[in-house]
Amino acid sequence: MISYLKYIKIFTTFAIAGCLLALTGTNAHASSEAVSDYEFGYGPISSINNDWLLAGGYMGYGSPSNLSDSGFHATFSMVMKNGTAYHMHQISNATLEDVSMDGNNTIMKGSVTVTMRDGPVSNVPTTWTINNNNTLAISMDPSKINNHFGDTPIYGIEQTPEKEMAFTDLMSEDSKFMDKWIPLMVQNTMSALNIDSGNMSEMNQPFLNQSVN
């Protein structure tokens, strides 16, 4: 089997590392402390609210010894179940005010800015609950955002590089599907980015011809 899977695994690893570094790379205080002083989180989020579907991703970091040096960002799409009214939202400018433990669950409280149709809404009271280091529940005060996301939390999965690689390994077991899907995905991405596929193919040919170990 050609090395498309190896390419995807390498790309996934570097993408994860790049996202986490980006969260601290522009933060002068973060760069002056050891990475081990911070806790990082990222993963997918989703929810269903009546006729609306929501899906996207989030990233966050925090310093247990300094709550003011924390950050959270989420970008997600919303669309009705029938495929209409597609739009996007962002959660940013998070401030963390309190962190407590309830058994194996971490409860964080603060506020965020949420992009809405009429402009960003600031200081939206928000609670993040991490359950057993595996799931995340984001609860925003619905009264501040016209109940746009309903009155239930937006749920997410706490990912790690190890979980990501295990997922990729399981997907790669369907080699017939992956052999077809990955080239189509790469070609579609290059087309969307207006990249000359001929030049790209020549440039990557030596690498793509390698076999997976």
Walk me through the structure.
By secondary structure, the protein is an alpha+beta fold. Helix content is 32%, strand content 42%. The chain has helices at 4-25, 28-31, 161-172, 175-192, 197-208; strands at residues 39-49, 52-63, 66-80, 87-102, 105-116, 119-131, 135-140, 154-157. The chain has an 8-stranded antiparallel β-barrel with strand order 1-2-3-4-5-6-7-8. A hairpin with a 2-residue loop joins strand 4 and strand 5 (105-116). Helix 1 (4-25) runs antiparallel to helix 3 (161-172). The chain is globular, with a radius of gyration of 20 Å.
Q: What are the key terms here?
A:
213 residues, alpha+beta, 32% helix, 42% strand, globular
Number of strand segments? 8
H/E topology pattern: HHEEEEEEEEHHH
Query: Mind telling me the C-alpha Rg?
Result: 20 Å
Structural class: alpha+beta
Oligomer: single chain
**Residue share in β-strands:** 35-45%
DSSP helix fraction: 25-40%
Low-confidence region ranges:
7-33, 201-213
Q: Kindly state the mean pLDDT as a whole number?
A: 80
The largest β sheet comes out as:
8 strands, antiparallel, barrel
Q: Helix tally?
A: 5
Strands in their spatial order, largest beta sheet: 1-2-3-4-5-6-7-8
